[in-house]
């Protein structure tokens, strides 16, 4: 059967596989072909793992032929951010330091995706060590935005976003420490989830800033997103910070609608916002109001300290997490770190050093508590909040590379969810010209199902995911 | 020539004898194994790996804290201690900074001037590092690294600088070792490196009150003998410097066994800015009094208490008791032998003497076997036939019921009578022979 | 603090840092602590960029946190432990698989001189 892979979602592909209208092998080959073809244009993959994908596809076809039960992600081709440790597939974090690193074990999420019989198309490009908001900090060259090749796809999960937006896979994994899933999702017209801290195991995923890192993923639709979370979430004996509680089906209740739900618009996020972006988001909010949601303004007064707090805690943890790269047990020596990694190591080392700890790290941990308390207070009054994901549209390659502070400020609307720990879902909410705009739906701890419910209701009305990039 | 008072504090590291390592599932029993065969992504510090704390290691650490009279900490956590060294896999060591499992405590030692309590500053838990060996490979000087030891649970017990001689420092370290072994939380073997002591030594003018403005840390010490020798050497060395009106350099010095000297270890000078911060991959700990009470219940009678009781209960000399209680197994062995020996009315002092002087292998010779030996040794001096006849008659006269029981077929009655006769003969008769004679008589 | 003199020095540095973080980045000291070899041009660039960032983050000093406890673990979880049980280790071959230099089952580095 001939299919247009760009039209597929996980759900529709899964139906085709279950009905034996297409073989996993054919599906995989079609995506691999597209990945090879478009990678030249987009530089979204560091490694395309065709051998692995083909073997996985054969296994899936055998399972289907044997009439084994077909899980919702069986045979689904996905792309994996190169922060995820994959046994036998090179894992580089997009850094020259790990250029030839071949892991001997799998991250917990990778094991789960294997158990769910997804198919690994390849490992995606990213800002090295996940440091960045544009993808330009990759040691293997920048990734391009499929909607406009002179623009960045966002970062740090740049390759995952571009690979999926270009339909070289049906989902892609990411890590989000300060917006690294949500911002590229916004820039590439995708659904991107940063789950609650502790919802998805971090074991085996190269650590950036351990108290902030959240392991999530990109999909084209909200429903697809819930399917992947159902496979990846849940307690892990290897991750002491992963919460207990049985695995769950996150598609449950997704059709519930928004009638009667209270949605808060945090004033501080709209104050200095670009007028066009603001208008786009408020139009989306209106749509939700039309569907029966109650909209009210709320306040998160410590928002303005988010980026400052983040840029103390995050580099401090980065400086320790990157200390293991000494070129003895694996990888190359420390001189091979790129400029951004070096910058953050220096900043973090400085902030933690004797005499500065109280003024920086400890102070930041106090303000972090105040920021969390703001959120807890707001969620006593509303079910979710909606705010912009990025202060700008996808910017041009090279535009911010020489100004780290300007680049850091790209995270202004996303870092707070990481500091607070709460889940946040980016969903596409329209276009300005040819460039996509995304908005965040943020809820209290462990409210992913609610975020999906709101996102799904909006998506059914708008279906922005149907607007594909033209990559001919 | 002025006279000086040595000021000595001790940092003691003790590897805990848990089955698995501190933060991973690898076997902690690494001694003598092939290099890098006891590792995993966690203790090798591979990208992405995360620690998971060993519950038993924490209990062991708290047990030692309680045994050292330390303040228990109701809330605690692990921190990252950041520094670079090739034996440190992650570039930081998971350790404890401001909330160690155990706070201030003390340990009493006997010194030439009597019993004294040495204050413990803190006792915390951390992970051990890998092991470095220096070698020449193809003509090049290289350092080889084995990570089998990496991540083994390691306690650090820090004392206040309150010891004033090498002898006192040795006594303190030995007492600590004895307690650790009583608790069965480590074999605390200096030669194997499962106990390591790092004395810090400085001198002040005799009669002075304040601490000297420098101290010298001593490393590479793998026996109590060397500890004593190193401290003594250092006291002499520093006194000579001070006599020249100079101040010894604050530094780390290693004990060189061949030269019988301490030698300066010029490691990179920046080492002391450790940039501690809470380990984000591990959540904090909260304990309540019940939890500590439960641990306390698991603490056996400790050396001081046992010594005191042995002297009181068994009226033995302090010298004898010191030997008997040096390790818990000997003390238990002695008490078990006493219980068995009671039947034969062997005097306590006699059993103690045999254990102290003959040093039976307590792993191989059961206490009952030891007593059997004592009893048969006594046979040489056993009582005569007439005396035995008299005792048998007496016992039989006093126990008509037992005779009746035996005649009705109760076999234990004969054992009872035998016991009575052996006892009346103060054990100086062979029980088997008595049984035989009784059976003849009661036919 | 091991040396009372250096403690005093750090205390002074800290006060200066809070007042004006832009003036006191000792990039050589920090690079040494971080075990990071930097070229002189990198040092220059970073010094300027770090001053910008530190200038920005110094806005936190405006927040009154006198009555605020630093946040602990964000999950609120406590006492997550594992039983003292062993699982098989990885093989020596796997342990050494990514190492640039090995010798007889050991990782190898250039000699570290401990004594002089």
TrEMBL record, chain A:
Family (UniProt): Belongs to the amidase family. GatA subfamily.
Alphabetized PANTHER family for the sequence: GLUTAMYL-TRNA(GLN) AMIDOTRANSFERASE SUBUNIT A, TRANSAMIDASE
Catalytic machinery residues: 81 (charge relay system), 156 (charge relay system), 180 (acyl-ester intermediate)
Entry keyword Glycoprotein: no
A Pfam family per the record: Amidase
Transmembrane segments annotated in the record for this chain: none
Recorded superkingdom: Bacteria
Species annotation: Candidatus Curtissbacteria bacterium RIFCSPLOWO2_01_FULL_42_50
Keywords: ATP-binding, Ligase, Nucleotide-binding, Protein biosynthesis
Keyword Protein biosynthesis among record annotations: yes
InterPro entries: Amidase, Amidase_CS, Amidase_dom, AS_sf, GatA
Amidase domain ranges (all copies): 26-451
Gene Ontology CC annotation, any one: glutamyl-tRNA(Gln) amidotransferase complex
Protein name: Glutamyl-tRNA(Gln) amidotransferase subunit A
Role of this protein: Allows the formation of correctly charged Gln-tRNA(Gln) through the transamidation of misacylated Glu-tRNA(Gln) in organisms which lack glutaminyl-tRNA synthetase. The reaction takes place in the presence of glutamine and ATP through an activated gamma-phospho-Glu-tRNA(Gln).
GO biological process, one term: translation
Assembly behavior: Heterotrimer of A, B and C subunits.
EC number: 6.3.5.7
A GO term for molecular function: ATP binding
Entry-linked SUPFAM superfamilies: Amidase signature (AS) enzymes
Reactions catalysed, as given in the entry: L-glutamyl-tRNA(Gln) + L-glutamine + ATP + H2O = L-glutaminyl-tRNA(Gln) + L-glutamate + ADP + phosphate + H(+)
Automatic annotation (TrEMBL), chain B:
The organism's place on the tree of life at top rank: Bacteria
Catalytic activity reported: L-aspartyl-tRNA(Asn) + L-glutamine + ATP + H2O = L-asparaginyl-tRNA(Asn) + L-glutamate + ADP + phosphate + 2 H(+); L-glutamyl-tRNA(Gln) + L-glutamine + ATP + H2O = L-glutaminyl-tRNA(Gln) + L-glutamate + ADP + phosphate + H(+)
Any Gene Ontology biological process: translation
Molecular function terms, GO-annotated: asparaginyl-tRNA synthase (glutamine-hydrolyzing) activity; ATP binding; glutaminyl-tRNA synthase (glutamine-hydrolyzing) activity
InterPro entries noted in UniProt: Asn/Gln-tRNA_amidoTrfase_suB/E, Asn/Gln-tRNA_Trfase_suB/E_cat, Asn/Gln_amidotransferase, Asn/Gln_tRNA_amidoTrase-B-like, GatB, GatB_C_1, GatB_Yqey_C_2, Gln-tRNA_amidoTrfase_suB_CS
Pfam annotation, one family: GatB_N
Keywords associated with the record: ATP-binding, Ligase, Nucleotide-binding, Protein biosynthesis
Gene3D superfamilies with a match to the protein in the record: 1.10.10.410, GatB domain, N-terminal subdomain (1.10.150.380)
Keyword Nucleotide-binding among record annotations: yes
Annotated EC: 6.3.5.-
Spans through the membrane: none
Subunit structure: Heterotrimer of A, B and C subunits.
Primary role: Allows the formation of correctly charged Asn-tRNA(Asn) or Gln-tRNA(Gln) through the transamidation of misacylated Asp-tRNA(Asn) or Glu-tRNA(Gln) in organisms which lack either or both of asparaginyl-tRNA or glutaminyl-tRNA synthetases. The reaction takes place in the presence of glutamine and ATP through an activated phospho-Asp-tRNA(Asn) or phospho-Glu-tRNA(Gln).
Similarity comment: family membership: Belongs to the GatB/GatE family. GatB subfamily.
NCBIfam families registered for this protein in UniProt: gatB, PRK05477.1-2, PRK05477.1-4
Listed name of the protein: Aspartyl/glutamyl-tRNA(Asn/Gln) amidotransferase subunit B
């Amino acid at each position: 059967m001939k299919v247009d892979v760009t039209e597929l979602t996980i759900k529709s592909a899964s139906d085709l596989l279950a009905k034996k209208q297409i073989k996993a092998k054919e599906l995989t080959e079609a995506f691999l072909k597209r990945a090879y073809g478009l990678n030249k244009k987009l530089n979204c993959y560091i490694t395309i793992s065709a051998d692995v994908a083909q073997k996985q596809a054969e296994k899936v076809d055998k399972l289907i032929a044997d009439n084994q039960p077909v899980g919702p992600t069986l045979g689904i081709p996905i792309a994996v951010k190169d922060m995820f440790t994959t046994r036998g597939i090179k894992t580089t974090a997009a850094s020259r330091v790990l250029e030839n690193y071949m892991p001997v074990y799998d991250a917990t999420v990778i094991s789960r995706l294997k158990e769910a019989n997804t198919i690994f198309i390849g490992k995606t490009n990213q800002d090295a060590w996940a440091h960045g908001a544009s993808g330009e900090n990759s040691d293997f060259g920048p990734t391009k935005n499929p909607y406009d090749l002179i623009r960045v796809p966002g970062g740090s999960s740049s390759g995952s976003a571009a690979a999926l937006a270009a339909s070289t896979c049906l989902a892609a994994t990411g890590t989000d420490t300060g917006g690294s899933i949500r911002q590229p999702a916004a820039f590439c017209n995708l659904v991107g989830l940063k789950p609650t801290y502790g919802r998805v195991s971090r074991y085996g995923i190269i650590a950036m800033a351990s108290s902030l890192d959240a392991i999530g993923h990109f999909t084209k639709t909200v429903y697809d997103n819930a399917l992947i979370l159902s496979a990846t979430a849940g307690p892990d004996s290897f991750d002491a910070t992963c919460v207990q509680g049985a695995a769950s089906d996150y598609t449950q209740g997704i059709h519930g609608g928004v009638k009667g739900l209270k949605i808060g618009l945090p004033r501080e996020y709209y104050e200095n916002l670009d007028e066009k972006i603001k208008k786009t988001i408020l139009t989306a909010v209106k749509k939700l109001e039309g569907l029966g949601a109650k909209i009210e303004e709320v306040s998160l007064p410590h928002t303005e300290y988010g980026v400052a707090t983040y840029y103390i805690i995050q580099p401090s943890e980065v400086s320790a997490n990157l200390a293991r790269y000494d070129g003895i047990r694996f990888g190359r020596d420390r001189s091979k770190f790129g400029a951004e990694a070096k910058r953050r190591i220096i900043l973090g080392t400085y902030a933690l050093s004797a005499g500065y700890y109280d003024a920086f790290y400890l102070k930041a941990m106090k303000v972090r508590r105040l920021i969390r308390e703001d959120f807890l207070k707001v969620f006593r009054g509303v079910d979710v909040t909606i705010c912009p994901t990025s202060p700008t549209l996808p910017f041009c390659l090279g535009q911010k590379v020489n100004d780290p502070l300007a680049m850091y400020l790209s995270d202004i609307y996303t870092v707070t969810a990481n500091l607070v720990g709460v889940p946040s879902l980016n969903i596409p909410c329209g276009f300005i010209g040819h460039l996509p705009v995304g908005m965040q739906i943020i809820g209290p701890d462990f409210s992913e199902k609610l975020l999906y419910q709101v996102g799904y209701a909006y998506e059914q009305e708008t279906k922005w995911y149907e607007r594909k990039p033209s990559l001919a | 020539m002025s006279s000086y008072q040595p000021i000595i504090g001790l940092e003691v590291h003790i590897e805990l004898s848990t089955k698995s390592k501190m933060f991973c599932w690898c076997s902690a029993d690494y001694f003598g194994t092939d290099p890098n065969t006891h590792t995993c992504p966690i203790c090798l510090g591979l990208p992405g790996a995360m620690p998971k704390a060993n519950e038993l290691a924490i209990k062991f650490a708290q047990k030692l804290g309680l045994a050292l009279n330390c303040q228990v900490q109701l809330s605690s956590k692990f921190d990252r201690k950041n520094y670079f060294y090739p034996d440190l896999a992650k570039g930081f060591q998971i350790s404890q900074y401001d909330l160690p499992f155990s706070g201030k405590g003390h340990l009493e030692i006997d010194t030439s001037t009597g019993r004294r309590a040495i204050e413990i500053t803190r006792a915390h838990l951390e992970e051990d590092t890998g092991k470095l060996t220096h070698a020449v490979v193809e003509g090049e000087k290289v350092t080889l690294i084995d990570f089998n030891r990496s991540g083994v649970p390691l306690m650090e017990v820090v004392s206040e600088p309150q010891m004033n001689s090498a002898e006192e420092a040795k006594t303190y370290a030995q007492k600590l070792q004895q307690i650790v072994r009583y608790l069965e939380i480590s074999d605390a073997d200096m030669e194997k490196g499962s106990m390591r002591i790092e004395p810090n030594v400085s001198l002040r003018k005799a009669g002075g009150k304040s601490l000297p403005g420098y101290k010298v840390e001593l490393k590479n010490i793998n026996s109590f003998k060397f500890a004593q020798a190193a401290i003594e050497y250092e006291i002499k060395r520093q006194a000579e410097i001070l006599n020249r009106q100079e101040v010894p350099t604050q530094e780390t010095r290693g004990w060189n066994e061949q030269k019988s000297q301490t030698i300066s270890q010029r490691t990179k000078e920046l080492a002391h800015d450790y940039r501690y911060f809470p380990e984000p991959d591990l959540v904090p700990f909260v304990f309540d009094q019940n939890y500590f009470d439960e641990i306390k219940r698991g603490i056996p009678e400790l050396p001081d208490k046992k010594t005191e009781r042995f002297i009181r209960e068994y009226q033995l000399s302090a010298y004898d008791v010191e030997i008997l209680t040096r390790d818990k197994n000997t003390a238990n062995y002695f008490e078990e032998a006493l219980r068995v020996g009671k039947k034969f009315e062997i005097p306590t002092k006699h059993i103690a003497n045999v254990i102290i002087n003959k040093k039976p292998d307590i792993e191989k010779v059961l206490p009952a076997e030891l007593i059997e030996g004592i009893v048969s040794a006594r046979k040489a001096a056993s009582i005569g036939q007439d005396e035995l006849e008299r005792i048998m008659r007496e016992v039989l006269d006093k126990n008509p019921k037992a005779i009746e029981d035996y005649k009705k077929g109760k076999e234990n009655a004969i054992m009872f009578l035998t016991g009575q006769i052996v006892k009346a003969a103060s054990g100086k008769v062979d029980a088997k022979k008595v049984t035989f004679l009784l059976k003849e008589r009661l036919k | 603090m091991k040396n009372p003199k250096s403690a005093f020095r750090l205390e002074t540095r800290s006060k200066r840092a809070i007042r004006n973080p832009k003036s006191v980045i000792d990039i050589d000291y920090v690079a040494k602590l971080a075990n990071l070899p930097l070229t002189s041009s990198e040092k220059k660039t970073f010094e300027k960029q770090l001053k910008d960032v530190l200038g920005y983050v110094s806005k936190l000093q405006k927040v009154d946190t006198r009555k605020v406890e630093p946040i602990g673990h964000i999950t609120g979880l406590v006492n997550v432990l594992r039983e003292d049980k062993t699982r098989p280790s990885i093989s020596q071959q796997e342990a050494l698989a990514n190492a640039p230099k090995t010798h007889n089952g050991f990782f190898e580095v250039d000699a570290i001189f401990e004594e002089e």
